[in-house]
């Protein structure tokens, strides 16, 4: 990404393990609503938010699938994860939503340097 005000939000937590995934998505939506270019990178357990077959929310927690489904309405179209994350969780590309891009772990440092701001959740 070449834009100087670009934001990368890194999600590392599973949808229902805590509120961190939800907070990361909310931060991305707020930034995008104000016109900031936003991409999302899902690492570790966070990649489970990208699964096509999302379950229902845990008791007392809001489901994340509706939020994931509306990302494109906010021009958040670049969703990323690493190939190594998929291997570690015994997942394949076909388990994920269609709009997810794969990046190799060795390319992540250069990838992250291309963003002016990074938020971790």
UniProtKB/TrEMBL annotation:
Spans through the membrane: none
Keyword Iron-sulfur set for record: no
Record flagged with keyword Transferase: yes
Gene3D superfamilies reported in the protein's UniProt record: DsrEFH-like
Gene Ontology MF term list: transferase activity
Coiled-coil spans in chain: none
Keywords (A to Z) from UniProt: Transferase
Pfam families on file: DsrE
Record-stated family: Belongs to the DsrF/TusC family.
PANTHER family: PROTEIN TUSC
Protein name listed in UniProt: Sulfurtransferase complex subunit TusC
Species name: Vreelandella nanhaiensis
Gene behind this protein: tusC
